[in-house]
Amino acid sequence: MTAIYDDALAPAGVTIGQFRLLRLVERAPGPLCLTELGRVSELDRSTIGRNVRLLQRLGLVRFVPGADQRESAVALEDAGRRALREAAPLWDRAQRRIEAALGPQTAPKLRSLLQSL
User: Fold this and answer.
1) For the purposes of burial, counting CB atoms within 10 Å of the CB of 26, is it exposed (0-12), middle (13-18) or buried (19 or more)?
2) How far apart, in whole angstroms, are the C-alpha atoms of residue 86 and residue 77?
3) What one-character DSSP code corresponds to residue 69?
4) Rounded mean pLDDT for each run of 10 residues along the chain, 117 residues in total
């Protein structure tokens, strides 16, 4: 399934993991500290740091001062917002493709199983 989403999101220039992190940053009420981003994404701090630095190199996010001087926070760049706008319909299309392949009875079961993880 990851490959299906990655292929679908490729025209927007992001992978499924990058799309997810960008969405989490977008939905935060303000800049999101890396510790909080790790908590909401359920990834450890070192993984978040690496992934956010890659997003920064791609020009999709920027580091900003956090509320606590000891912590960095991350905010979307305009390019990150554009990538999300481009990627959202691609994500939706991939989602519909997967649900159609699974069928109307299996897709809800899969969603339920994945949410329990």
Assistant:
1) middle
2) 14
3) T
4) 91 95 94 91 90 96 84 93 97 90 78 71
